[in-house]
């Protein structure tokens, strides 16, 4: 069930500090059902921290976290797939065995493993250990793990890292198909051009909170997200 406002994920008035250093200050964020939300900000702005709050890896100092219209509870994470801070893989195991372990943990049928390997283009990797994979292959395996349970909300931290142009195009299509089924995506990326292609809504983190949250077309009515982002954030751009 989704909240009346149609949000699958919300942060309201969230503060978070790391080693007494404020990271987020009064952050409110709203991910809508059936949308791709692009979270932007410079390195250290708090993008990964924001995502970790939504999956319960860290707890806010103040404020609230809500998933699917309800106050955060661990049971709701069965409806969330996430890849945050890069792939966390069993290096000695193959792509298939990595997925099998996760399938057992979340109670997914084994045929879903082969399906996901095909979806991300790793079905021909055989018994090769994932430690030998390229950065892009590891990113694709992390995506397969996040999608394994057919979640309602997908949270992806810099998923394009290491992907070649074909991999980026494939990711774009996969995410579009995902939201076409009424599901939602929260994605962070430094690749502004790619976010421009896939995002419906944008949030720009600056100074621990959002300096913009809303539709992409309102932020960049001329279709130039890069220029709009640098103008808004005050970072040096072109």
From TrEMBL:
EC number: 3.6.3.40
Stored Gene3D superfamilies: P-loop containing nucleotide triphosphate hydrolases
Pfam family, one: ABC_tran
UniProt keyword annotation of Transport present: yes
Domain ABC transporter: 9-232
Gene Ontology molecular function: ATP binding; ATP hydrolysis activity
Entry keyword set: ATP-binding, Hydrolase, Nucleotide-binding, Transport
Classification via SUPFAM superfamilies: P-loop containing nucleoside triphosphate hydrolases
Keyword Ribonucleoprotein recorded: no
InterPro entries: AAA+_ATPase, ABC_transporter-like_ATP-bd, P-loop_NTPase
Family membership noted in the UniProt record: Belongs to the ABC transporter superfamily.
PANTHER family referenced in this protein's UniProt entry, alphabetically: ABC TRANSPORTER, ATP-BINDING PROTEIN
Listed name of the protein: ABC transporter, ATP-binding protein
